[in-house]
Amino acid sequence: MQYQLDEDGDYKVIYAYQQEHRSQQVFVSGRTEQVSGLTIREVFSPAGRLSADGIDGAKALALLAGSRKKKIGSWELEGDVLLFVIKLPDTVDGATLEAAMDLAAETADNKEIELSGDKDDL
Asked: Is domain 33-115 annotated with CATH 3.30.1460.10?
């Protein structure tokens, strides 16, 4: 799997969906965080922009409700960017990390299509 290191120290992977002629960015955090003795690493993928994609209060509440139904991962905001984020113990094996990356990419890209139609900016 090819990756780039971004300016924040995160690992960036570009997923290419050939049939749909789309791509999706996925990031694996270069830093970990400690929570109750656990070392956590984030996998995240951007799905939209609040202002550009018209994400208002009603849509935000729908995203929040949708997060409840997810078995793993949830919607978060970082500034103006909507992200699908999966938080994992840093000790997961490569196959589990790759599965989380696949899920983040697919979930975020599907939401990007829902929010912005044919745009493929993220």
From this structure: yes
